[in-house]
Recover the amino acids of this structure.
């Protein structure tokens, strides 16, 4: 999925080819998923990746911070399996389990969960299962995130990029003016 995701983001002008190359170089050195690394390096937001994947695969997406997770559903999948496949069970209605997935094309994950639970599995897309809240978001259940990320922020007068004269651009933008 990594190459396809990168190609889609470049094709939709959400990242530059140079940003993709930098991220792929970083990925070769540090490992991890392309989407996670793009977010970590500040080229896109995880919401942007979620929206792109949702459109591309025709699978609904969810914002986990806004989703009420049924605590009983979490016990359907062992934590090690959830971490291995980057999945999170969200809800069960009858014989159908809604499963948040970083990679909704991972048939091995879908098959494992279906076999393990005996339920039909309906995937929904999440970009990365990362806790960026610093513990400030309460989902109402104990939840071990697959990754935690601390994002440094500065007042404009203290920003190292501003001090160095580097122009700031919003993650996912090309930095180019849309004016003719």
């Amino acid at each position: 999925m990594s190459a396809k995701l990168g190609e889609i983001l470049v094709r939709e002008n959400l990242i530059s080819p140079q940003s993709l190359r930098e991220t792929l170089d970083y990925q070769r050195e540090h490992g991890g998923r392309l989407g996670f690394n793009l977010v970590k390096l500040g080229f896109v937001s995880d919401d942007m990746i979620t929206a792109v994947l949702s459109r591309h695969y025709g699978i609904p997406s969810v914002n986990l911070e806004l989703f009420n997770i049924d605590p009983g559903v979490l016990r359907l999948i062992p934590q090690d399996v959830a971490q291995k496949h980057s999945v999170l069970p969200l809800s069960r209605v009858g014989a159908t389990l809604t499963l948040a997935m970083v990679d909704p094309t991972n048939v091995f994950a879908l098959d494992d969960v279906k076999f393990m639970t005996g339920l039909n599995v309906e995937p929904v897309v999440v970009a990365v299962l990362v806790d960026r809240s610093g513990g400030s978001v309460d989902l109402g259940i104990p939840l071990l995130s697959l990754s935690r990320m601390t994002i440094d922020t500065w007042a404009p007068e203290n920003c190292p990029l501003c001090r160095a004269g580097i122009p700031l651009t919003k993650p996912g933008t090309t930095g180019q003016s849309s004016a003719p």
Summary: The chain has eight helices and five strands. The beta strands are 87-93, 96-101, 120-125, 130-131, 147-148. The two ends are 35 Å apart (CA to CA). The first helix runs from residue 2 to 11.
